[in-house]
Structure formats: structure tokens, C-alpha cells
Design a protein that fits this description.
By secondary structure, the chain is an all-alpha fold. The chain contains four helices and no strands.
Length: about 150
Amino acid sequence: MSSLRLRLSPRRAPLDVEDEVDLDVASRPESALIVRLRASFEFLRRLFDLEFRELLIPRMLPTLYLLGIAASGYAVVAFALDGFAQSAVVGLLRLLLIGPVAFLVMVTLLRFALELCIAIFRIALHVNELAGHAEDIADGIPRISFWKPRKKR
């Protein structure tokens, strides 16, 4: 399972969507319950972080995607059952023809929306990183005054 962690701070390495391993957690023998409790506590801490130091949505995207797929499946099944309530022919038409196409369209649009969110978060991360580099560059450049004060006569 891949995790995605974004922090809006300068000089952060570019975003890689790979598995992250916390060496402190991996090196200690702990029960699965303790690991899950710590993960839940960490989620709640980030959820109620009023300063938005760390972004939470990128970590939630896989869960949101699974929930969206389940909701799409539920909507298609409910649509087909409503068709069966009208007649068997309408129900079969919805179940075998319209339902699968609607499911694929909904999941495709969901995937598009979530990938758009990831792209926006990556842009924010890189803009923040560029801002940090711009500050470093600006510190090394002497200030140029564009006007000279007039001497009083």
C-alpha cells in the first residue's frame, strides 16, 4: 500500500508516491493493535491540526477512491433494482447494459477528480519548494535601489 505525505515547507524533497517506512515503528516489536491505535491517533491529530502544517487529504485518497467505487456499485445496483420494480425487461436492460457503462463512467470520473487533487497538491508542494529556493537566491543578491534620493540645495 502506498502512502502519500505532503508537507508545505521549503527545501523538501520532491514527492514520490512510494511506500514510506518509519524506522522507529519498524524496529520495535509491537502488537498490531498498538500500531493501529497510534495510526488512529496520528490521523486524529492531523485532522484537528488548525494550522494545516501537514496535508491530510493526499493520505486519504486511496480510502476515498475505495469508498467512491463502493458508492458507484451501490448506485448501479439500486438503479437496476428500481428497474426490476418497474418491469423485468427494464431491470435486465439496466443491469446488463446501462449499469456497467454507468459504473465505468462514475469510476473514471472519480479517478479523474482524485488525480486532479493529487496534481494540485504536487503543484503546491513544488511551488513551496521553489519559494524556498527563491529566498536562498534572493539572500545572496545585493539590493538595487531604483531611485536616488534628491539632494536638497
